[in-house]
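fold-stage: in
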Amino acid sequence: MLFNLPNMLTLSRIVAIPLVVACFWLDRGWAQWLSMGLFVAAAVTDWFDGYFARRYHQISRFGRFLDPIADKLLVAAALVMLVHNGTLAGLNVLAALIILAREILVSGLREFLAELRVGLPVSALAKWKTAVQMVAIAALLVGDAAAHWVTQAGIVLIWIAAALTLITGYDYLRTGLRHMAEDAPPTGGQK
């Protein structure tokens, strides 16, 4: 079923993205709080959509397709905003690039492995990485509207998330490389 509760929660995450961005660009302290609140609400729906899908047996192809896209769009939009406004500047931009590059890598691996009918389950460490990443981004979104130390804590957490990103990305890549090393007939998508 296309419009079940888990899928609606996933879609709400995508709908929240322009609202998070719009609030972030308003020049008011309360707008940073609202941007952070919307981001946190959207991030929390990621847990709830999976919970409800499993609990009420509403796992769908649409949901399995859209859920990781919604996550990546939300994170990418927030990181681009934080880099653009200078919250993540200098060397700290590298943390954002590591996170974005890993997301693209894992998406490509999942697509490749899906063609081979091989699943790439989410590891426990990847779930921790996501949690740290979401807390870091939330802290950076509210930033100095809360307190100066909140921005500093967000920067420390984004680097922890980047380190976890490298570890989990390597684990996923190692799994994917095992399947790539096997002899396979060439396909039309090969470059």
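fold-stage: in (second)
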Amino acid sequence: MRERLIVGLDVADVDAARAMAGRLGDAVSFYKIGHGLVFSGGLELARELIEGGKHVFLDVKLLDIDNTVANGVAAIGKLGVSMVTIHAYPKAMRAAVAAAKGSGVTLLGVTVLTSMDAADMAEAGYANDPAALVKRRAEQARDAGMGGIVCSAAEAETVRAIVGRDMAVVTPGIRPAGAAAGDQKRVASPADALRAGASHLVVARPIIAADDPKRAAEAILAEMAGA
């Protein structure tokens, strides 16, 4: 169960991330490193975590012309990370899949950010609502040969039906009972997300902002086990 909980190291800098990983100890085996850390030494931190026996999810949400995406994925594949995100545009995903062959990294297609709702999507120029676009992107990711999908728990059941049993379904926006939603607009509890078909849960603030992060992580793991 521990490898299904991914703790987002959404902290100020690499030193704070190292300290947080130290506080969490053996309670956590999987960490997410996003843009804030990537641009401040996070890739070296990823290597350290991997050498220490941890799994790393590199959340960089790649999107560019095919060749640039392919070059990025090829380089990332050499780091030894377990997962990396690609915005789920068909051409970008196909380029990423070709570049990742033999590396062992699981490519995750990002469908619709959990901080966005229908009004946000309309403002950005999308005609579809979040659920419709998530469904379309999931179909395209499956057809491209991606390893998994990132979506909110609200869409996890639909996505699981589309991608089948073998692809990962990674759900951010996880909030245990009583936790504040923050800037997330499509959230769910750990148990509800797993029941909906999620394979991995990404949790950041409810753990890293807790007075006792390790105890908070263990409580979430217990809720996951009960689901």
